[in-house]
Amino acid sequence: MYELTGVTKRYRRGKATVNALDGVSLTVPTGDRLVIKGPTGGGKSTLLQLLGGLDRATSGSVVLDGTDLSRLSEAKLTRLRAERIGFVFQGFHLIPTLSARENVETALVPLGLRTAERRRRAAEALESVGLAERAGHLPDELSGGQQQRVAIARALAKRPQVLLADEPTGNLDESTRDEVMEVLESRWRELGLTFVLVTHDSSLARRADRVATLSGGRISLTERTRGPAGPAPAPPGPPAEAASGDAGQLPAGDVPSDDVPSGGVPSA
Ligand SMILES: Nc1ncnc2c1ncn2[C@@H]1O[C@H](COP(=O)(O)OP(=O)(O)OP(=O)(O)O)[C@@H](O)[C@H]1O
Ligand SMILES: [Mg+2]
C-alpha cells in the first residue's frame, strides 16, 4: 500500500521554480488500481517517478508498505526498484539488439538469479502476455503492441508488487491500445498487483473505480460507484463478451470506497 502525505516536488530551472507536485496526499491500497489523468505538465510522470523511487520528493513522504522511499539510501532504493516495482513507459525502451526473451531476462540480472531461473521466468512472463511464440524475435520484428507486451513481460518477470505504467498506450493505434490495456488489466487482476496507470484513454478512465486528476501539481480524486450512468463505455475487445466480462469482474456496489480514508481529500 502507498501512503503519500503532503508530497511536493520542485524543479529549479535557473531562477524559476516549477512546482511539479504541490501537496499531494493519496492512499493506494495493495491490489488496487488507480488511474491518473490530467493535462500535460500536470505532474503525472513526476508522481509516478516518486512512486517508483526513481526520484525523491522535495518534501512530504512517499511510504510503500511502511518504508519511506525518500529516506532510503540510493543502494536500498535501487534494490527496491529491482525487486518490487515494475515500470512500463510510453516508449517501450527495449534494447534493439536483444530478442524479446533477452530483453525480459535483462530485468532479472539485478536479482542475482541463476541463468536457468532467468530463462524460466522470462519464458513464463512472455507466455503470460501471449508472446511465447515471439520470444526469439528482435523488437523491430514485432508490432508496436507486441513490443509493449514484451515491455510488460519485462516489468512482470521480476514478480513485482507494484506496476507503474506511464501512458503505456500513448504510442499505439486504437486497436492495439485495447490489446495492451487488456493485457495490463488481466495481469493486474490475476497477480494482485498494486497498479498505478497514467493514461489519456478516456474510456478506460470512465471504467475505473478510482481516478485521480493531477493539474498544476494538485490532485483530486474521484471514487466511482457503478450505477446506470447511461450507455456503458465501449470496453476493449468484442463488445458483447467484453462488456459482460467486465461487469462480472466489477459488480456494482463492490467498490472499496470505504477503504480509502485519506485519498479522497483534495490536497490543500
Ligand atoms: N527534470 C525536470 N526539470 C525541470 N522541470 C521539470 C522536470 N521534469 C518535469 N518538470 C516540470 O514539472 C511539471 C510536471 O511535469 P510532468 O512530466 O510530471 O507532467 P505530466 O503530467 O507527466 O505531463 P505529460 O502529460 O505531458 O506527460 C512540468 O511543468 C514540467 O515542465
Ligand atoms: Mg508525463
TrEMBL record:
Chain positions covered by the region annotation Disordered: 217-268
Q: Which GO terms describe its molecular function?
A: ATP binding; ATP hydrolysis activity; transmembrane transporter activity
Q: Which PROSITE patterns match?
A: ABC_TRANSPORTER_1, ABC_TRANSPORTER_2
* Entry-linked Pfam families: ABC_tran
Q: Which organism is it from?
A: Streptomyces hoynatensis
The entry's cellular-component GO terms read: membrane protein complex; plasma membrane
Q: What is the lineage of its organism?
A: Bacteria, Bacillati, Actinomycetota, Actinomycetes, Kitasatosporales
Protein name per Swiss-Prot or TrEMBL: ABC transporter ATP-binding protein
- Determine if Iron is one of this entry's keywords: no
Q: Which UniProt keywords apply?
A: ATP-binding, Nucleotide-binding, Transport
Q: Where is the composition biased (Pro residues)?
A: 230-239
